């Protein structure tokens, strides 16, 4: 007789019955069950990866929107506080040239030197060649 | 086959010859105005398409002491086969220049054996209050003067 059995017999009968009941109810993980659990886990984590792609798409959309905004602002004149264009034919000569920059520099002293320089650089940009000549 | 080889040698020789004939010149641009001027703008091109602008510097007037405005990106990238140059000053009328004044010097690279045919146009020149002055623009270069 296994000495451990004699030890078990010394235990209270209620505990012995409970342990025997738990032993009978033990679940065996067969290979089929293991594959099933693995498949479920794979499906679960795959779904999580798909959900993470949504924020990436949102970031891409935000970046695209910012790029469009930058391009639009770059192509359009800057407005002053009253909504008037400041990079424009201010002296009414029929074209935008350095005289408009001088006009702006004299009339809009609150503008920064950087803004004045930006206007002047637009005037001399070779992309404005057709307007200048 | 002989014709093909001869053509290749001819094109190679011409390209080598063209690279050897590259030269650099300075073009002084003058504005002549009886009235004192506070702003000016000109365009410079080469009708023979030999010119590449490689730099622009200020002229002789103390009120236009900074480098004028021009398309620095185009010049830096070597694509400026023409140029728009301009500047203005907020100095008082009595400080503004008049008469024949060198307003800028344009440095150009010329490719090929031909002579450039510079096309200099005054876009505008104004007084300090924005009135257009009756001015004449001209240039002096190593290859001659143009008005």
Written account of the structure:
The complex is a heterodimer of chains A (133) and B (147). By secondary structure, chain A is an all-alpha fold. Chain A contains six helices and no strands. In chain B, the strands form two sheets. Chain B has a five-stranded antiparallel beta sheet with strand order 3-5-1-7-8. The longest helix of chain B is centred in the N-terminal third of the chain and has 19 residues, at 2-20. Chain B is elongated. The termini of chain B are far apart. At the A-B interface, helix 4 and helix 5 of A face strand 2, strand 4 and strand 6 of B.
Q: Tell me the structural class of chain A.
A: mainly alpha
How far is it from the N-terminal to the C-terminal residue of chain B, by CA? 52 Å
- Total strands of chain B: the figure is 8
Poorly predicted tracts of residues of chain A: none
Classify the beta-strand content of chain A into a percent band: under 5%
Class derived from helix and strand content of chain B? alpha+beta
Shape of chain A: rod-shaped
Name the poorly predicted regions of chain B.
4-18
* Mean pLDDT level of chain B: 87
| Number of helices, where a helix is a run of at least 4 consecutive DSSP H or I residues of chain B | 2
Whole-Å distance between the termini of chain A? 114 Å
Helix content of chain B: 10-25%
Q: What's the main sheet of chain B like?
A: 5 strands, antiparallel
What is the β-strand count of chain A?
Answer: 0
Radius of gyration of chain B: 19 Å
Radius of gyration of chain A: 40 Å
Look at the structure and give the mean pLDDT of chain A.
75
């Amino acid at each position: 007789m296994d000495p451990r059995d004699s030890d078990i017999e010394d235990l209270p009968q209620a505990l012995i019955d409970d342990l025997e009941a738990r032993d009978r109810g033990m679940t065996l993980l067969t290979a089929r069950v293991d594959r099933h659990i693995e498949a479920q886990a794979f499906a679960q984590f795959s779904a999580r990866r798909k959900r993470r792609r949504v924020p990436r798409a949102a970031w891409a959309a935000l970046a695209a929107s910012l790029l469009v905004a930058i391009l639009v602002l770059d192509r359009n004149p800057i407005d002053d506080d009253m909504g008037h264009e400041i990079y424009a034919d201010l002296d009414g000569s029929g074209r935008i040239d350095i005289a408009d920059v001088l006009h702006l520099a004299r009339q809009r002293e609150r503008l920064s030197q950087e803004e004045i320089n930006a206007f002047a650089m637009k005037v001399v940009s070779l992309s404005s060649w057709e307007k200048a000549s | 086959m002989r014709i093909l080889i001869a053509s290749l040698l001819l094109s190679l020789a011409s390209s080598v010859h063209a690279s050897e004939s590259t030269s650099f010149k300075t073009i002084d641009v003058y504005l002549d105005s009886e009235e004192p001027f506070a702003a000016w703008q000109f365009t410079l091109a080469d009708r023979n398409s030999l010119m590449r602008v490689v730099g622009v510097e200020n002229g002789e007037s103390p009120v236009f002491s900074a480098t004028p405005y021009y398309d620095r990106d185009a010049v830096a990238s070597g694509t400026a086969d023409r140029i728009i140059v301009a500047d203005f000053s907020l100095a008082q009328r009595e400080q503004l220049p008049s008469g024949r004044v060198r307003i800028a010097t344009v440095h150009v690279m010329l490719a090929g054996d031909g002579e450039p045919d510079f096309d200099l146009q005054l876009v505008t020149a104004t007084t300090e209050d924005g009135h257009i002055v009756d001015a004449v623009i001209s240039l002096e270069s190593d290859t001659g003067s143009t008005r």
